[in-house]
Amino acid sequence: MLTLISGAVQDRSARGIAAAVSRLITAGRLPAGIRLPTVRSVATELGVSPTTVSEAWRNLILAGAIQTRGRSGTFVSGPLPPRERLRYTQLSGVNVTLPKDLSTGVPDPALLPDLSGALRRIGDGRWAGSYLDDPVLPELESVLRERWPYPPERLTVVDGAMDALDRIAGATLRFGDHVLVENPAFAPLLDLLQAVGATVIGVPLDAAGLDPGALRQMLREYRPVALFLQPRAQNPTGTSMDPDRARALAEILLHAPSLLVVEDDHAGDIATAPPVSIGTHLPGRTVHVASFSKSHGPDLRLAAVGGPAHVIDAVCDRRLLGPGWSSRLLQGVLLDLLTDRRVIAQVAAARETYAARRAALLAVLHARGVQATAADGINMWMTVPDQQNAMVALAAHGVAAAPGAPFCVGPLPDDHLRITAGLVAGGYDDLAGVLASAAYQASRGSGRRGQGHPRGWR
User: CA–CA separation, 370 vs 384, rounded Å?
Assistant: First the structure.
């Protein structure tokens, strides 16, 4: 096995060793369950220091490709973590269907615009074109550019925000790259970055977005190649970056000229905060993703991606070997929705409704002494003394919430739950009683005092 590994390694840096071993695992030449040679023996075989091999092994462990078993040694776990270890699969928190499922993070279907009119208007075949046509309808691109927070060098359309993030990561990241994300961050993004072998570092948030001091420190310490963030209605906390914070972060990022900024504006037109982007200050290094799932419909499966040509062209070129383009029929539907005055009014009304729901639920929770934030979007980030006890207590009342742990890159001072406040259309007092009771029972279970008593969920 030593000969196999040494023969695959061309670059004897920690990153190169990790990449070579990862390729062997993916190709099946190092099958799952096989024990790897010791760090010292690999170092001797390659003629490098044990510290270099240890760092390579650490990157592979963080990527889920290998695992340590104490004194038994280090073993191949496979190129990807098992499904049950993915953060995304942990978000429901329970394995049964409950009457009030607030774990989903999806928009209220009743607040989405009706697509039937748009489908009738554009379903006459006008968008049926050639395989050689531009991947984005020219009329849609024109509308998107008018809405963009800064002038993008290139712009394309892909199949939703996660498709955009996946393709950007594939085009720009290498195994072992250090990548900065928000902490807490969107759980599926963390799964994605782990799958490509990135070493993920969390940057703490405050009420205006990423903490500038922490960002500055992590740039010095880790020399990351990319920063992924959500500029508005951050999932799960609801935090939105303000223009002053965007400017401050851009000034810090000037000192990391090779770092790429990737912004996921997932909430889009239902966010109450105005559009904001670091790309206003660093357009040549910022890729901005604009999603329409929350505002116009998840099944549209569309998101726009704009930014520097070398990134967007790489994404488009790779798509030519797969789907080629996103449905021009659906692009026509989106164009119709974005230019229909009635739909624009409906989306604006949905934005106000979500804001009212967040405010109403927060008010009654705060009155009961429950700590929670929901500044924007459809989610609420609620502090609890013990996550598991709180979820069990909620389930007893027929309410499901998403656990906070899958969103966290590293430990936070408190446990949390993510509540989809946008789905709560009434009964705020009763729900607040249930949520407060869950916090109370969790506190009691962990030996800490809590507040609030249930009046029952109706």
Answer: 8
